[in-house]
Amino acid sequence: xxxxxxxxTRPRDLPVAGRDxxxxxxxxxxxxxxxxxxxxxxxxxxxxxxxRARITARLRQAAGAAVADGNRTIVQAARDLGMSWPIVAxxxxxxxxxxxxxxxxxxxxxGIDEVRRGKPCWSFDKSPSRGPRPSTGGTSGSAISAAxxxxxxxxxxAPARR
Length: 162
Fold this sequence. Notes:
By secondary structure, the protein is of the alpha+beta class.
């Protein structure tokens, strides 16, 4: 191997004391003289700044941790660190993959929380296995009990108490 030339890179890193850091790395470009070498030319690299990287691994990890542990949105973390939304989203995904288990626990109870527009419509299914259930038809706001009594606000007024 021999040195083919030099390449100047400027990877971005975490801010220090609230100020941006400017890294300049003049790294060597190598040429491989071996006839069977699949790569004839390549540059040196370190674990914190892999080949073709524009940001350091430390900045990428800090962006993922800011979203996961810092209680910030992806947009907020991207703005504060001077990064793009897709880079911070990928950093968060990588951070979550390390923290979360590979397979989640099986679900025993599933609750669905939906925001519904308008009042629900209820109807009564006469089969013994089912009770009142939402339906698409019927009057809005009607509520029919399992006994078949209509308690909707539009039903007749309840009998007066004595």
